Amino acid sequence: MKAVVWHGLGDIRLDDVPEPKIEDAHDAIVRITTSAICGTDLHFIRGTMPGMREGRILGHEAVGVVEETGPGVRNLRPGDRVVVPSTVACGTCSYCRAGYYAQCDNANPGGPRAGTVFFGGPEAAGGLDGLQAEYARIPYAHVGLVPLPDTVDDAQAILLSDIYPTAWFGARLAEIGAGDTVAIVGAGPIGQAAIACARIQGAGRIIVVDGVGDRLELARDQHAETVDFNAEDPVEAVVRLTGGIGADRVIDAVGVDAQRPSHGPAADALRSQGEQFDHERDEAAPEQNPDGGTWVPGDAPSLAARWAVRMAAKAGTIGTVGVYPPQVQHYPFGEAFMKNLTLKMGNCNHRRYVPDLVSMVAAGRLDPTPLITRWVGTEDALDAYRSFDRREPGWTKVALGVAGDGSVAPGLGEAAGTGAATTAGTQGRVATDQERGGDRS
Ligand SMILES: NC(=O)c1ccc[n+]([C@@H]2O[C@H](COP(=O)([O-])OP(=O)(O)OC[C@H]3O[C@@H](n4cnc5c(N)ncnc54)[C@H](O)[C@@H]3O)[C@@H](O)[C@H]2O)c1
Ligand SMILES: [Zn+2]
Ligand SMILES: [Zn+2]
């Protein structure tokens, strides 16, 4: 079968690889119809997330059809359409039962303290092949796979694999409540999805910060207030827009590949910190293999975190979902301490949120499709990766149509992502029963 395969830093290829087989009673084989490229995949190729093995299939976002099930999978049959949550969890341990699926005790072969397991990631993340392929082996399929109603097509479902659950989780981490002013740092797919999630969770105002013009436009299409960090100092802008107070809640949707502003007042203000950021970049990406302007690691790894802390109101909350790998050692801890900030972070507990999000989409309350700005066939996956890496105009989120017929939603295809608002008529707080039960994110 065809798959996107990691060979080294700056080196991914479209390879022919063997089809996966059932290895455990709780496995399923899923025939992928639609996959997607994520900002997380870029960290592996730029060198800001270490530990990938040569030959690993990439990708952790997919919609597909169950092809085969192991004898332990009692709730699904071949032919069922499913969305695949990015992280893998056993469903049995105390962490899974409490909703912390990303901290499962059993899914990682390295043991209970070895960390989150996800598809197409480093060996430390379980060493699982990914979903940018024609078929994938899904461990703990009886827990992970979420069935899709016929009314939710691939275009509506593909962003429920990772993007919307992570954005929802980020908004929960940030403790968004009714009327809060929320700043979202980063207008990639996660930041974009966080707009609708923050709004449904009750946000009063939403301010989005990025330096890429068409991504800011996509945020404005959703009626977020936008700040271009190459035109304004984003901390000053957010403080000014909030009457000198700052944002009650901040979501960091950037992570380790944060970039310095190229020009404008924020670039001037940061000039004296150039050496500090160079040092952080060397720490975050000790090895790298850029190809001209492609696969270049972020040149200011702590900058999104620094801005988040500075633009937060006193006693505010920061929810960090942008990824920071273990080698990153810099955070503006003292500034956060002095403002009595609450800091929450981590890998999304996808399985906790995906079923509710499927219901919201099926009910017409949430429409993820405008965020899919490109829909390409697997044969064009490598070019799509490069365009997404360079944040080229129009390449905010790429869905990969893996199975031709099965993939492209009727009437969508190339026209995906024309930019309509993504909350279909829902304003105001909507809490699920699960949420009302406790404050665990
Ligand atoms: N926690 C989780 O479970 C989880 C899940 C999925 C993705 N992620 C992470 O979320 C992050 C965003 O993912 P994505 O797919 O949206 O990626 P992306 O790379 O498309 O988005 C990052 C955005 O941040 C912007 N940016 C860069 N420097 C900035 C700065 N200094 N200030 C403000 N914005 C800046 C970029 O222009 C880009 O639009 C990544 O780190 C990804 O790994 C985390
Ligand atoms: Zn992803
Ligand atoms: Zn578990």
Short characterization:
This protein is an alpha/beta fold. The chain has helices at residues 39-46, 94-97, 141-144, 154-157, 163-173, 189-200, 213-221, 234-241, 265-270, 274-284, 303-311, 333-338, 350-362, 381-389, 433-436, and strands at 2-8, 11-16, 28-37, 56-57, 62-69, 81-84, 135-138, 146-147, 181-185, 205-210, 225-228, 247-252, 312-320, 342-345, 374-377, 398-401. The longest helix has 13 residues, at 350-362.
Describe the protein:
There is one protein chain. The chain has 441 residues and is an alpha/beta fold. The protein has two domains: 2-162 and 349-429, Medium-chain alcohol dehydrogenases, catalytic domain (Quinone Oxidoreductase, Chain A, domain 1), CATH 3.90.180; 167-345, 3-Layer(aba) Sandwich (Rossmann fold). Helices cover 27% and strands 19% of the residues. The protein has 15 helices and 16 strands. The chain has helices at residues 39-46, 94-97, 141-144, 154-157, 163-173, 189-200, 213-221, 234-241, 265-270, 274-284, 303-311, 333-338, 350-362, 381-389, 433-436; strands spanning 2-8, 11-16, 28-37, 56-57, 62-69, 81-84, 135-138, 146-147, 181-185, 205-210, 225-228, 247-252, 312-320, 342-345, 374-377, 398-401. The strands form three sheets. Strands 3, 5, 6, 7, 8, 15 and 16 form a seven-stranded mixed sheet that branches. Strands 11-10-9-12-13-14 form a six-stranded parallel sheet, with helices on both faces. α5 crosses α6 (189-200), α5 (163-173) packs across α13 (350-362) and α8 (234-241) packs parallel to α11 (303-311). The chain is globular, with a radius of gyration of 20 Å. It starts with a strand and ends in a 5-residue tail after the last helix. Bound molecules: nicotinamide-adenine-dinucleotide and zinc ion (2 copies). The site of nicotinamide-adenine-dinucleotide (NAD) has 33 residues, from α1, α6, β10 and α11.
